[in-house]
Amino acid sequence: MRQPDQRPVARRRAGVKGRGRALAVAAVVSIGLSACTTGGAGGGADGATSTIRTAINATPTTFTPWMVQNRDDYTVSRLLFHTLVRRGADNSIVPALATSWESTPTTAQLTLRDDATCADGTPITAGVVKDSLDAMATAEVSVFREIVFGPGTPTISADDQANTVTIALAQPWLDLLQGLSLEATGIVCPAGLADQDGLRTGAVEGAFSGPYVLAEQSPGVSYTLALRDDFTAWPEYSDPPLQGEPAQTLEVAVVGNDSSRANALLTGSMDIADINTEDMTRFDGQEGYTTHRLPYLALYVLFNERPGSVFADEAARRAVVQALSRDALNSAASGGLGELAVTFSHAAVPCANTDASVLIPQDVAAARGVLSGRTEPVKVLGMDVIGPQGAANSYVAEALREAGAAVELNNVDVSTWSTTGATEPGAWDLTVFPAINAGGTMYGALSPIVGPATEDGGANWSGVRHEDVLAMVDEAMRQPDEQARCGVYQQIQENLIGAAHVMPLSYSPEQSIARPGFSINAYNNQVDFSTMRIGTGAQG
């Protein structure tokens, strides 16, 4: 039974010398149609460089895997910490630190590879993996804990002789293997577990289990990662396989402006980068550049429904939904390049709703009758990368003003948005939420809306547990029949959308771009930054 949550550099090749709670940019996999084009090689193809230059949007909020909050955290964690498995083509589970596994709805036993080591040379044994997963499962703060393990605390055991780790869940949870592919489950080595304050800042030598170590950092400016000479435990992707050479050095700049990224790619001062705005069209027909255009973010309006909030009232939430146009927001967010959504998960997440009739139709006159009678301003929290300079958030603010509402818009960078939304519930009333859901599960999509609130260590920004929905999730997790399980999830989606707890907007595209001679692979319409390579065209 589900219980309420009670938890109130000096550069080195094999280590590091010398932050975070919030969000839950939920785990909603962007598995729809993608566009991938490849041109000729150049740049790094001749082996003239051993460095890849790339970018993140903002300073990572933490280097502790189970405390990751946003896309930039995920990117850095994927490079520094290895996971037991990955998700490959067609949602398949791919070996990484684990070579094989057996699972049931309540247990999983994973057999580990025998050649993996930490950055300080410590062997990654079953005991090391157990200790790291235990740290995540019992952490005071981890928005991904329930996404991975389900309700309750799992029992994790290790057999070093057999090189196996066994996870026994508190109740049936069919999403466990997908959850173990998430960056939040990256294995932290003993040195990191022994110094968790240093782990958060990236300052612990030997904490890393992944291919790279953090060699230098200038927060807010740049990060330098160095390839481990002894790393051989690459994920066993096959469709497409890994090709080319990993960079000896990754230079990761903090560049939040997509136009600046596009300029850098076109002038040769950046090698691989992601772009979310209309700047992606500047690469149409560019010879030699490889692009993956992916339906990356599921955008939806999410409300702060905590007691005392204006949006604890369904009539007020419904008025906001009636005031907004999905077409207009899609235009503001991506120049109309996105696809309109009919649910809060990505369209290819199993059991995603496809029926547009569940949506509340736009009715500005009806909205005005509710919103114009309120004197307190609606506090809109916006992330400034959703459209140029946060244009999607500006649209929401203006549409609400046209419907008679007083509005305060706080358009901020990714890191500030994550921290404010998850730790300062009094600072916002609604936000355009950009869901990633790297695990591609329906509960991952639900996690910012239901379950443990962020102040209780969970992923739920709304602040209301929705016990009725959680009971239905438990029912779905006990259903061996997919059709029956999807019937439960369909009812959940209809209930949440129909009561205006969430307003589906669009699937905002992202284009991953590699200039000639560099590559990065995409699986299930999601790039894996550990696959960045020199010397071949991108695949996926």
How would you describe this structure to a colleague?
It is a single chain. The chain has 15 helices and 22 strands. The longest helix is centred in the C-terminal third of the chain and has 17 residues, at 482-498. The protein has helices spanning 71-80, 126-137, 145-149, 176-179, 190-193, 196-201, 258-267, 314-323, 326-334, 364-371, 391-402, 414-423, 442-446, 467-477, 482-498; strands spanning 35-37, 51-56, 85-87, 93-95, 98-103, 107-112, 155-159, 164-168, 212-218, 222-227, 249-254, 272-275, 290-303, 339-340, 378-383, 407-412, 430-435, 502-514, 518-519, 522-523, 526-527, 533-534. The strands form 6 sheets. Strands 1, 12, 13, 14, 15, 16, 17 and 18 form an 8-stranded mixed beta sheet that branches. The chain has a 4-stranded mixed beta sheet with strand order 2-11-10-9, covered by helices on one side. It is 25% helix and 21% strand. Mean pLDDT is 89; it is low at 1-42. The protein is of the alpha+beta class. α8 (314-323) crosses α10 (364-371), α9 packs antiparallel against α11 and α14 runs antiparallel to α15 (482-498).
Outline, from the CA principal axes?
Answer: globular
Average pLDDT over all residues: 89
- Cα Rg: 22 Å
Q: What structural category arises from helix and sheet content?
A: alpha+beta
Count the strands? 22
By DSSP (H or I, 4+ residues per run), the number of helices equals 15
The largest β sheet comes out as:
8 strands, mixed
Give the uncertain stretches in residue-range form.
Answer: 1-42
